[in-house]
Amino acid sequence: MTPAALPAPVAALADALRAALDGGPAVSGLPRLCDAALPDGTALVVRTSGSTGTPREVALTAAALRASATATHERLGGPGRWVLTLPPTHVAGLQVVVRSVLAADAGVPAPLAAAEPGGHFTPDGFADLLEPALADGVPVHASLVPTQLHRLVTAADEGSPRGLAALARCADVLLGGAATPAPLLARARAAGVRVVRTYGMSETAGGCVYDGVPLRGVRVRLAAGDVVELAGPTLAAGYVGDDAATAAAFRTDAAGPDLAGPDAGTRWFRTSDLGTLGPDGTLTVLGRADDVVVTGGVNVAPAAVEAVLAEVLPGVLGGAAGEPCVVGVPDDEWGSAVVAVVATGAVGALGDPATTPPLRPVDPGTLGRVRAAVADRLGGPSAPRRVYLVDALPLRGPGKVDRSGVAAAVREHETR
Asked: Is pTM, for the whole model, over 0.85?
């Protein structure tokens, strides 16, 4: 058994990306937002998710894409067959195709397996795609977002283990696009899944830090306020048609006779994320700087609260526990109140935040237990003032919860 033939749209995309990597016309993951000229060497134009405002178009050069794919293969022990489960419109899915093109050049047979674009991800459908790709012994790499892993784990726990069992046979599973709850990661690894957590964005040609360690050539530092900055050969050329945004996000350290340090002349991309660097240089991402909730004069990082909630909610809510999203909402007393919204099922589909299902407040006893658990770990200011249950959370981009949509839903619910 061998992987099925690629769907025509995916095969055409792979051919177009191969030509672009070799100097041909640039490929755009989505219809172009503007007709501005592309920077020299651009091979791929990808759109940001718009989580910080209006989406922008990012110009990635062939050199950046090759550097990213080559470094990924080096980190994973060599090229292999890639399985496309992400939309080939955003950087994560497009990079799967780019890696498969380089894998083909390295002699990997049938280097890409993919289902028809636009289909709904299901555990059994994933197994149907993955099992033939695993059949001939070629190392298989998969790239998922936490939502997909959650569905595979949940299905296995409910008696349908095919998808998770197939995933455990992969050489590596890249997991990115959003923070992964610790219990989900532990459950997957207990099932034998070789998870590699990735961190990156469109401006860095996708994931460039794996399990906290930068890929070859990539550098990480913390700027003022512990904001993460990244450098290296995977950086984008800039934003298409927006020189001001490019100048603000991509900065080159000064160089000269009196400026000869290790960063002199280095070009950096300033992310919107906060982080810490361990003694060995391992990066831990704490969440977006603009997600921080200031409550009663204290800064609260939603990601830290979400990590604690992911651990304690199963014991408090039982089967109702799902992925939490923590946001700040205006509050007369505290300035902003920390509020948690917990999905009781899978994270919602990409779409209009207005379609977020109704919120259901937990009972006072449950709220007290949740607050006590968070306060014990992070202190009283981090304890959610309110906790709501919801059938699903809205997404903005592959696997990314739309925090603004969640906050809007809370505000609407509380002002009725």
From this structure: no
